[in-house]
Amino acid sequence: MSNVSIQSLPRLQSLPATLSPENAVRIELEEGVPVFRASAAVQSRIEALLSEQHDSTLSPAEELELDRYEAVDDYLSFLNRVVRNLYHRQVPPES
Fold it and tell me: Where are the domains of the chain?
């Protein structure tokens, strides 16, 4: 079994200013493995920004906010892959 190197973890430069530390991420179980997802409130904000981007031009502040949400989403996806891979390496398949 290989170890995950801390140096291989991506770094977030900053978080969106609208990202509330309370209820920003929820944890769900999928097949006994914890999965980290953005909260409904965060998803709604991202959808609003994407809708506005589709309908018109975002302000520079909104573009930056959307970019930061994308970085958080990428980070959560990476974290979920690492957790899932570690889990599958440690748990023998059920017979």
Answer: 26-90
